[in-house]
Design brief:
Distance between the termini: 25 Å
Radius of gyration: 28 Å
Structural class: alpha+beta
Number of strands: 8
Helix content: 40-55%
């Protein structure tokens, strides 16, 4: 980056994310020793990064365990291994001759069952890959904003008690929103985010529970971020009193 010394303050976010090269990191660490403002900014960025990382972690869907346990019940269990006796070998030969027709029928049934299980596993894999791609894209968006040299952080508390953080970057023209302690929305409702642009509230995405989401839309002209509870599916304009209207840094 080769920042001039007057620009060192802008490296707080990159330092907190360990995104500086060794020379820049050493220079900023020396600056940090006698700059209280930067120490405070670094502490806030580190805390925010920890909350964001924790917020994007996803637990497996509850139904996944139920489907897995149900599939396990259909898996054939192997009998215990015991030393074979002469009589056991004779009985085994007889059973094998008589069991051929039954085994063929069972094989067909097993093939159908395993085909169904394979299809289920394939769908589960596809779903997991899609979720992984979405999380990766979300993390990329969050990291891009946090690592921006001009990243700025503001904190607020919604009227429902949730702790919120907005990290924005004018250079990237992006911002991310995180919430902690967000109550479950009312039945048939969801939390919708807004950007206040010249007095007009523009839809900026949704947040369904504690977590982190990139805000939709450019923030260049935005002065604040809003949060409301709207009907499931969202609204083109807020229909309820804002739970939060957090001013962005000028």
């Amino acid at each position: 980056m080769n920042q001039h010394r007057s620009d060192l303050h802008a490296l707080a976010a990159a330092y907190a994310l360990d995104a500086l090269d060794p020379a820049e990191r050493d220079e900023f660490a020396a600056h940090l020793a006698h700059c209280e403002e930067c120490r405070r900014d670094v502490a806030e960025f580190e805390a925010t990064a920890a909350r964001l990382a924790g917020a994007v972690a996803q637990d497996p869907p509850p139904a996944l365990k139920q489907r897995t346990m149900a599939a396990v019940d259909g898996v054939r269990r192997l009998p215990p291994q015991v030393p074979a006796t002469r009589e056991a070998h004779r009985v085994t030969r007889v059973l094998r001759r008589k069991a051929v027709p039954l085994a063929l029928a069972a094989s067909v049934a097993a093939a159908v069952s395993f085909a169904g299980l394979a299809a289920w596993q394939h769908q589960e894999s596809q779903d997991a890959q899609q979720q992984a791609r979405q999380v990766e894209q979300q993390l990329d968006a969050v990291s891009t904003v946090l690592a921006a040299p001009d990243a700025r952080t503001v904190h607020g508390r919604a009227t429902n008690g949730a702790l919120t953080t907005v990290v924005s970057s004018d250079r990237q023209n992006q911002a991310v929103f995180t919430a902690t302690g967000l109550p479950t929305p009312d039945e048939g409702k969801t939390y919708q985010l807004w950007l206040d642009q010249n007095g007009t509230m523009q839809p900026a995405g949704f947040i369904h529970a504690d977590g982190t989401v990139p805000l939709d839309g450019a923030i260049a002209e935005a002065t604040a971020v809003g949060l409301t509870q709207e009907p499931a599916g969202g609204s083109p304009q807020p229909t309820t009193t804002p739970l939060l209207l957090l001013a962005l840094p000028a």
